[in-house]
Amino acid sequence: MSEPDRPLFLVVTIKPRKDRLEEAEAQLQSMRRNTLNEPGCVFMHLTQPQDDPDNWVMLEMFRSRAAWDEHMQQPYNVEGNKILESLLREPSELRLLDEK
């Protein structure tokens, strides 16, 4: 379990619908722009694996678990995730990681 004051890293595997790629990317980039303005966000990058181009990966770092918890409650994030539901093939896979 992550300690409250330790950085929190996230790897989110996103599976956009092939017929809604542009919409999905626009929604994710909008959410990303808002998140980068949060004081608890260190970085957030939307990437595309070279060996798996049908899926995307969001790489994130927050200053703490509390900062990420606050991020998850932001209106643009709550609403954005609702919008994403219809743009994805299946729910995103979220992995939380602690620094060693």
UniProtKB/TrEMBL annotation:
Q: Which one Pfam family would you cite for this protein?
A: ABM
Show the GO MF annotations: monooxygenase activity
Q: Which UniProt keywords apply?
A: Monooxygenase, Oxidoreductase
Under InterPro entries, the record lists:
ABM_dom, AI-2_Isomerase_LsrG, Dimeric_a/b-barrel
**Would the keyword Oxidoreductase be found if you checked this record's keyword annotation?**
yes
Q: Which PANTHER family match?
A: ABM DOMAIN-CONTAINING PROTEIN (PTHR33336:SF3), QUINOL MONOOXYGENASE YGIN-RELATED (PTHR33336)
Q: Can you name this protein?
A: Quinol monooxygenase YgiN
